[in-house]
Write a structure and sequence with these properties.
Strand content: 15-25%
Order of helices and strands: EHEHEHHEHEHEH
Radius of gyration: 17 Å
Shape: elongated
Strand order of the largest sheet: 1-4-3-2-5-6
Number of helices: 7
Distance between the termini: 44 Å
Largest sheet: 6 strands, parallel
Structural class: alpha/beta
Number of strands: 6
Amino acid sequence: MSKIWNSIQNLGYHLRERKQKENIKIVLSSGYFSILTRGHVRLLESSKKLGDVLVVVVNGDNALFHKKGFVPQFVDERLEIIESLSCVDYVVVWDLPNVGGVIDRLNVDVFAKGGDEYLSNKDMNIEELVACKKNNVKIEYGVGGTSKIASSSDVFSRHLEYLKSIGYEKK
């Protein structure tokens, strides 16, 4: 059975039903996952340990394009890669740069933020922070480690430097 959901609203209904029946603790993590790195894997594996169910929100192609100026992997590929991880229970796409609206729609208990992100409320995206407070969602900072390792931007930079070192030029 696919872990990928096409609708935040439908996933929200499903999670509410599960929570009522099973009394589960739901963890939410999110990211662009422009290419999957070991830092992403550590984030998601550590996020799963914070509860019973892990929901991963993958930012869509429009949001990724606005952040990086290009889309190295389209969202369908990124969803399938995230879905393949055993620690992930549900995957859904969200086409905005922050997940405040997702937090409002899903009945989650914990919002797991990676080590490369914010280490306190004062640095966090205001829409996400407001949504967490409004919905009584606990924010966990530095999940998967407190430093950024092997970010997708680092991987791209290293790759470009290598290409330049061997004399490759885009034609």
